[in-house]
Amino acid sequence: MVADSSYIAVEVVAGSAEAQQLVSLKLPAGATVAEAVALARLDERLPELGLDPECVGIFGKRCRPEQMLSDGDRVELYRPLRADPKVVRRELAELAKAQKAAEKKGPASDQGS
């Protein structure tokens, strides 16, 4: 990574299916996630994503913006959810149950016509 121990190398990433951005930064040792996010300016590069600088993680694990970074860290900015995963799972389960019930009724109702 970075030979000088007073600096660390980190990456800040964000994206969607259509657009991704990765910014490599060299920061002073002791820098925080919030500082890296501010310097990367991904909210300006990807305004359509509606990124929240408070919704961040390091290598897929949610963290607080004041978390100190280590050399080689990858800071990730997470997009807001479009739908609540619990609600989506429940709706899909109900749909599958309704389809299964319709399949059981389907052949019997055809014979009665």
TrEMBL record:
Q: Which Gene3D superfamilies match?
A: RnfH-like
Task: Tell me the superkingdom of the source.
Answer: Bacteria
Which residues does UniProt assign to the signal peptide?
none
Pfam family name, one: Ub-RnfH
Return the similarity comment. Answer: Belongs to the UPF0125 (RnfH) family.
Tell me the protein's name.
UPF0125 protein WM2015_1838
Q: Which organism is it from?
A: Wenzhouxiangella marina
Q: What is the lineage of its organism?
A: Bacteria, Pseudomonadati, Pseudomonadota, Gammaproteobacteria, Chromatiales
